[in-house]
Amino acid sequence: MSDTGRQSLTDKATAALKPDSEKSTTEHFGDKLKGKSDSAASTLQPQSEKSTTQRVGDTFSSNSNNDQPSLTQKAKNAMGLGENNQ
């Protein structure tokens, strides 16, 4: 379960596992918008108020806003399923 205002881990995983080549323009736009929104929410929400699940999800999705690709994105890039720049 995700914290209020945050993207669920299931939604993140579903978006990450679908190859970019199979996504429509709308899906690409939606993924970027949801990712930016979730990242902003992650930054604004104090660690002490995050659920354990959300903290783990933030770790794997690299929601620390330091312009580093997430572990999921790195894996997609390594398999040739994602963009190579992030």
From TrEMBL:
The leader peptide range reads none
Query: Which Pfam families does UniProt cross-reference here?
Result: HSP9_HSP12
Compositionally biased intervals (Polar residues): 1-11, 39-75
Region annotation (Disordered) ranges: 1-86
Q: Would you say which domain of life the source belongs to?
A: Eukaryota
Q: Where is the composition biased (Basic and acidic residues)?
A: 19-37
Q: What is this protein called?
A: Chaperone/heat shock protein Hsp12
